[in-house]
Amino acid sequence: MENARSRWIALTVLCIGTLMTILDETIVNVALPVMREELGFSQGGVSWVINAYLIAYGGLLIFAGRLGDLIGHKNVLLLGVSLFTVSSVVAGFSQNAPTLVAARFGQGAGAALVTAVTLAIIVMMFQDPGEQTRAIGFYSFTFAGGGALGLIAGGVLMQLTTWHWLFFINLPIGVVSVILGWKLLPSGKGLGLSAGLDVSGAALLVSSVSLLVYGIVNAEHNGWTGMTLAYLAGSVILMIAFVIRQKKAKAPLFNLNILSDRDVAGANIVQFLVSGGLYGSFFVATLYLQQVLGYSPMEMALAFLPLTVITALGSIALSPYLTAKLGERIGLIIGLAIFVAGALFLARTPLEATYAMDVLPSMLLLGLGIGLCLPPIMSLAMSTASEDEVGVISGLTNSTGQVGGALWVAIVASAAGSITASRMDGGTNERESVNAGLMYGSLVLAGALVIAIAVAAFVIRKRSVDTPTDGADAKATVHAV
């Protein structure tokens, strides 16, 4: 795809498809009480509207990325958008709980196929370092801003219509994405299945990550019980078996040597922690606005709007500028420092707050930090990607983010819940107790982000901004998706 205009139009199509899948991680949150009442979910069972999506999504990302390397990234992306769109329609027409949960599983699987290969396609289309930085900035905003936009869209749609339209809205977006993607995205046959699809390794990996995500979401709802720890232990055992399998396989699903590069390994660790900060801050801010300040769903949605706008500014405009002037590592550290400041400001959580003085500053700091962090993380994570591994590396990057987000939300929920329960047992009223719990939850997030700063400073290598990276050299040899 030589025409620059065509590349940027194709990037828009990719971002719209990705946005559709990211929105559905959070858009249903505001409708869960209504779904529980109308479809007959139990109090605990309604959480499967979220869990089914997360388990399928997190479990399939690396496998989906490798599948893209073998049969073509465009083919996998179009298959994913189609599956997601059909599943959305089924979810919208659901008349009972099992149908909705099954549809949400289908949405999660489709989202994994889309997300795993999108970054790979972007890296292949934009091989000029400057263009690639800007393109990843646009994609990063889609990835980071989608969660906040989901809360906004969910609040608006629930105010104007019924929960069914949270899913039906995906139909026109999905159809347009498939049509434009088919016409505009670069074609590529991939390596071919004859290059080797390690079925045993895939089964072990998908089982391990799915069990890990299930254990994490179980911890969020039921605490760190013996059963939760059993799930997590089972996940570790399966992952060890996967690593052993990859060392022996003639055509491994995942080349373990990928993680021997400091920048790639460091970027994935930071991605794990930053995604925890991203989803964890959404979790804390949502509960604070609703349970402490008493915001309605629409008011809460509008409260997140400045965060979304400043995230766009950070990822699309400021991050590429900082990368060009200072390099990815320094730009990342600056973004992380601002992100920490946002988490600490969120920890203030006064009981009697005004939006302008107490809520807006944390939203702006969080949004700017997120916007500055994600583009360099993704660039560094993809820095060694070559044609035959770009999909699986993209899947790895998204998988570490997904698992990190789920794990840190569970940790924050556990910490906040423990403090809340302790305060209530001591006679403090519910509102003050919840507020105290959320304050400690924000401090947990700040601690995770401080660790991310240390990793960025001491693991990721300092690069010269005047010379191309090794990854850029590797990418220059790639000519097709």
From TrEMBL:
It is a multi-pass membrane protein. It comes from the Bacteria. CDD domains: MFS_MMR_MDR_like (cd17321). One of its GO terms (biological process) is response to antibiotic. Pfam families: MFS_1. Its main location: membrane. The chain crosses the membrane at residues 48-64, 76-93, 105-126, 138-157, 163-185, 197-217, 223-244, 265-289, 301-323, 330-347, 359-382, 403-420, 440-460. The keyword Cell membrane applies. Keywords: Antibiotic resistance, Cell membrane, Membrane, Transmembrane, Transmembrane helix, Transport. It is found in: Cell membrane. Residues 10-465 form the Major facilitator superfamily (MFS) profile domain. GO terms for molecular function: transmembrane transporter activity. GO terms for cellular component: plasma membrane. This is Permease of the major facilitator superfamily. It comes from Streptomyces griseus subsp. griseus (strain JCM 4626 / CBS 651.72 / NBRC 13350 / KCC S-0626 / ISP 5235).
